[in-house]
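Q: Convert this sequence to structure tokens.
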Amino acid sequence: MTEIVAHHGIFRDTHLHVEDSGDTGRPVVLLHGWPLSSATWRHQVPALVAAEYRAVTYDRRGFGQSDKPTTGYTYDTLAEDLHTLILDLELFDVTLVGFSMGGGEVARYCANFGTERLHSVVFASAVTPYMLETRSNPEGPLTKTKAVEMAAALAADDRGFYDEFTREFFSVNGKIAVSEAERQRARKLCSVADKRAALGCLAAFGATDFRDDLAAVDVPALVLHGDSDATVPFEGSGRRTHAAIAGSTLHLIADAPHGCNVSHAEEFNRVLIGFLDA
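A:
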């Protein structure tokens, strides 16, 4: 475990909690989903290390064991945090794996900082290319009404919101696809999130347009998605991300919910490592 200073503030620096596993091998940086933490990668890190990759995970600012500043919950700042991590750890030939909200950070990183240090990218259950349904984005899977309702429910009762959210996160056709222990583990991770950070990031991933950012992805890309994702539906996200990135590889996990890296960890890992090995 280590910490990096992602941002030098006037009054206080922002420290990110980082775990760096595997001393050798090509680095794989895993970006977790909202409103969880890097602990959600516990099924992937051992598999990556066993396959001789260097697995780097970190808690997004405002979540997990990282600092929880009052500001900085925009994709430009979050991509800058990622860039700082890559520079501080002196990483090259990196594969970025962005899950859900993390997929937006991967796209914005490519747009803002280029792909010179990257080997490849993975968009897993990702919110790209643009979640919000608008006149210019009629395929967006998130309506403005739903976005407002989510923010209001989170602000009013975060504990109740996270309980319901984790049910949908792991559900396929109304049936939870993981053990209750796994769901409770995820709910507990949500409870560590700072409410300001959770609300800020909800606004960010719900309303950020990544369509131009995806045009900057010029390295091999894998789109990995559950075909029964009720949180970030494939048709409005993964399918469109695959179409937007020329030459990208698509793998749909059958009967998998949003949290497919947990519910279908074996298939998720096999496909991910197969992509890394190619």
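The first strand starts at residue 2 and ends at 7.
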